[in-house]
Every structure is written in structure tokens, then in C-alpha cells.
Amino acid sequence: MYNLDAAPRFVIAFRGTMLDKRHLIRDVYLDYRVTVGGLNKLSRAKNAIAMVEKFADNAGASNVWLTGHSLGAPPLQQLLVYKYVHFVLKDPFYHLSSQKQHLGLRKMIPLVFSISKFDPFEVSGPKHLTTVNWSNPHHQRSIMACMVQGAYVVERDRIKQRKQRLAPDWWENFHYELVDKVIDVHDHSIYGIVLRFKQHQVSPATTVYNRDAAPRFVIAFRGTMVEKGQAIRDVFLDLRLCMGSLNKTSRIQNAILMVEKFVKDFGASNVWLTGHSLGASTATIIGKYMAKEKDIHLKTFLFNPPFAEIPCELIPDGIHMAKTFFKGALTYILEDQRKKSQKNFAKLTLWTPYLFVHHADLISMGYIKYFKQRKDLEGTEASGVAQLATRSSVREMISNLFRKGSEMSHLLPSASLNVSRKRMDNFIMTHMIFPWWEPDLELETSEHRYDVNSNDHDQTRIEEKGNENCKESLCHEDNNVKLYMQGALQQSTK
């Protein structure tokens, strides 16, 4: 070991966000405070400052170095530095603030969360996609994510009044052109775009194989934007999503009309849907509507779709099972709601959207356990109650009692679930669209298909000629659920 005199006597290291149950909620809250400001008022920052003051007083500022990662890096350390700058600059803090190299802060840059820095395609676009094969599912995923990013950038081009538009690069590199926009009637923001494939275009940027497999039209929906002017409307729609009434808003109704128009003119096989976050919920509601009302199953890519309940991973297993039993029992008691949810699930079973979620994303991680629980309980005595619970929502049931017609977008019978296990720097990045066009996502894929013919599942038939089979299967499910609930009640009374 050389130059021991240059080594710091003390190093104070700060960790970043941790995603286990014990730390997740607190750390994510602090991530939020970093982005909106006010971290300096919290106990974690104050305690850290007190600790550094103690060692700087006793050992001297030149003997104290700071280091950290993610949440533990720029936020806390900037607070420490500026805390000393705002003092009277008395020793030893003068040395601590003016000679920052002694703190190991020479190369430190404040963490500024500016989403627009990702807008240029040449900065953050998928550099690996110089060759596109439309039969490759990973290429499909990457391109659909780019289309959604294009929907975000279109709106930011409008907000910032950019003379040099950045959005077209996100679709023109894949031989698409913009043919229409979906505009919110309330704030006139662009929340969706319609793109058309230019079949015979030759681009020097990318080589395309299997052009016949490419969708003729892609309709992409952006998620919530925090820019001034958009945040209020988008957050309002986020709240409507949580309440189960997003399907009643003008944004959804206009989007449905747009999709119906292109499906009618060009055929369902030529139209793909995609969306991210709030936009994924928009695409989900549209896809469910087309499947239930039109018997049309559109190919749909959903990135980080919100799961409008508390994630199961954050609920103790016992409470989660009690909640499941309660929902199943309530659905069983409300016969009209039970038959309606059974009928809707049977109609939707052939529609299989592609879900892309990160395992640590609090907003969408609920889908992982939602499908896992249903699979784990297949063939067990509790399967009937579990099936009732996974196709029902208490908010939806209460709303339907008052004829509100609400619909929870996260209740899906079938899906191709793709879970990314790639480590992200912080919670915010787990919910961003950017990672989804990258090649190294450590994806785990599982197929979930709602089997209407299985004895352990709902068996509703939708064909007009199958009414008697419907009644028979309803009775079969009723008997299974009744027997299980009777057994559970008997055990609870012992």
C-alpha cells in the first residue's frame, strides 16, 4: 500500500434505495422527496449532518470523506455541503466547504431529474436495433416502447414549442410515419399517436426483415407527464383510474373512437395497441372493450400498467389471504356481480395482452402476485374463491350496485407476463419507459390463460347456443364455492 498519508482517516458511506419489505416504503418516500424537494427537512438528512459534524469537529475536515450511491449519493451529500455553506463558514466547516476535494466531492454533480434529456433518439434510443426482425418478440417489444416514447416526445415538442422536432426520430427510424394524434378535449394535450408503416421505405439507419409481420398501424398512448400544464389533468386521470372510473372519461371515449375507426377501415390484424403507465391503462381498457363488445382481439403491449390496489408483496400473507377470501365471499354473495364478472372474464379469455413490469416497480408489481396466486391455487379447495377474488374488485362491486358502470383495468383473465429482474439505480427508473427498448432486461416470461373449460375454473360459454351449458357451469361453480365456504366457516367456529 502506497501513499498512506493521502488516505482519509474516516469515510462515511451512504447507501441508496433498498427494495426489500423492511426498507422499501421509507426509501421510496425519500426518493420522492428528492425529486420534489424537502429532503433536508427530514430526520435522515438531519441525522447524517449531525454525524458528519461530529467527526469533522473531532478529526478535522480534511480527514473526513463522504461517499454514497443513488439515494445516498448526490442528495444527502449536497445537503451536507450546502449546510456548511449556509453556516458562518467558521472552522472547520470553511475547510470542509471550500476544499471539497478533501471530501471526495470534486466530481460530484447534483442529481437533477430532468426527463426531457432523454427526448433525442440519438441520446437514449436503442443503438442495438440497426437490424429489425419483426418476427422477433424482443424487437417487437423494443419498437413498441420507442413508439410510446414518441408519444411522450410529441407532447413535449408541443409544450416547449421546439422548432426542431425530436419526436419523429422515434418512429421514422423504424419506417413509420405519423398519420393522426389523439387529443384531450379538456387541456388539448396530445396523449396518443397513430403511426403507419411505410412498407416500401428503405432507411440507411435500420435494415428490416419480415416486413409482412410488421403492423400496418400502431396506436401508442403516453402516461402521466409532470410538466407544467399537463400534470393536473394527468394526475386527475390517475385518481379516476384508482377509483375504477377511468373508462367513463372523455380521454378513453375518444381513444376508443379512434381505434374503432382504424380497425373498421383496415382490419383488426393491422392495428396494434401500446402504452405506458396511464397510457397502458388506456390501452387495456380499449383492448377489453374491443374484446367484450366487438369480439375483436387486438395485439397489445402494456409497459408498467398500474395495478390499482396495494401491491400484494407489501401485504403480510395472512392479511392478503383474508382479503382474498373477503373479496371472493362478497362476490359470491352478490350474485349479479358474480355472473357479470364471470361473463366478462369468459369474453376476455382469448385476448392475451403482453405485460411488461419490473419486479420492484410499486405501481405495477401487483400483477406478478395477481397471476401467481391464481396459478398456485389451481386445483385446490380454495380455487373457487380465489377465482372469484381475482376477477373482482370491491370498488367495482360497490360502483356497480349504484349502476355507475366502473371497471378496474387491472383485472385480466389472460396475459403474457414479462418481468424484468434487472437492477435499477432507484425506484423511479423501475417505472420508466426507457429500459424497455434495451436488450439486457433479464426477462422472465410466463403465460397465463384463463381456462373456461377447466373444472377448477369458471366455465361460462358465450355462444348463444350454449345457454344450458352456462347454467350448468354456473351451478358447478356455485357448488364448489359453497362447499369451500361452508368448510371454512366450520373450521372458524371450532
Mean pLDDT: 76
Q: How many angstroms does the end-to-end distance come to?
A: 71 Å
Strand order, sheet with most strands: 4-5-7-8-9-10-11-12
The assigned structural class equals alpha/beta
Q: What portion of residues belong to β-strands?
A: 5-15%
Q: What does the model show?
A:
The chain has 17 helices and twelve strands. The protein has helices spanning 24-36, 43-59, 74-85, 93-98, 121-124, 137-160, 169-172, 231-243, 250-266, 278-294, 317-333, 335-348, 366-376, 383-390, 394-401, 427-430, 467-493; strands at residues 10-14, 64-68, 131-133, 176-183, 190-197, 207-209, 217-221, 271-276, 299-303, 354-358, 415-420, 443-448. The strands form three sheets. An eight-stranded mixed beta sheet has the order 4-5-7-8-9-10-11-12, with helices on both faces. Residues 82-113, 455-486 and 488-494 have low confidence and may be disordered.
Topology record:
Elements lengths: L9 E5 L9 H13 L6 H17 L4 E5 L5 H12 L7 H6 L22 H4 L6 E3 L3 H24 L8 H4 L3 E8 L6 E8 L9 E3 L7 E5 L9 H13 L6 H17 L4 E6 L1 H17 L4 E5 L13 H17 L1 H14 L5 E5 L7 H11 L6 H8 L3 H8 L13 E6 L6 H4 L12 E6 L18 H27 L1
